[in-house]
Amino acid sequence: MNTATEKFIKDAVDNYSDTVFRVAFQYTKNRRDAEDILQEVFFILVKKRPQLYGGQLKAWLIRVAINKSKDYLRASSRRAEVSFYEPQPQPRDDYSEVFDALGKLPERDRNALYLHYYEGYTAREIAGILGGTERAVTKRICRAREKLKNFLEE
């Protein structure tokens, strides 16, 4: 690898590893699995030649993280897991109710809300990442917000 490619990859890891981790964690709900997916995503970036992704790198990394997370969940549903340690309960914070309610939303609603409110993407950008039209994404966000509100009021 040349120096420019190494710098590009280092910058990508520095700038987007938190985002990729959060996307993976949203699916797996497990820190170790999200870290594994994070490594896979950046390994793919190195392998696929990063020059191809230009200004769309963040969106590409999110899409790969979503796909890898789905692959992981499909594979984990087909295999039995054996734990060698007793997991510790996770501390609850002020936002745990919101995260629990988000977990009840359908995947596409959850992704749209996450990308819009947490990553700051517009409806048009989300449509490019998840597929669909800008209008459909706008409706999805509105409906998802309403569902989330109902879950939180229950």
UniProtKB/TrEMBL annotation:
Keywords: Sigma factor, Transcription, Transcription regulation. It comes from the Bacteria. Pfam families: Sigma70_r2, Sigma70_r4_2. Gene3D superfamilies: 1.10.1740.10, Winged helix-like DNA-binding domain superfamily/Winged helix DNA-binding domain. One of its GO terms (biological process) is DNA-templated transcription initiation. Residues 13-78 form the RNA polymerase sigma-70 region domain. GO terms for molecular function: DNA binding; sigma factor activity. InterPro entries: RNA_pol_sigma-70-like, RNA_pol_sigma-70_dom, RNA_pol_sigma70_r2, RNA_pol_sigma70_r4_t2, RNA_pol_sigma_r2, RNA_pol_sigma_r3/r4-like, WH-like_DNA-bd_sf. The keyword Zinc does not apply. CDD domains: Sigma70_r4. Residues 99-148 form the RNA polymerase sigma factor 70 region 4 type domain. Belongs to the sigma-70 factor family. ECF subfamily. This is RNA polymerase sigma factor. The lineage of its organism: Bacteria, Bacillati, Bacillota, Clostridia, Eubacteriales.
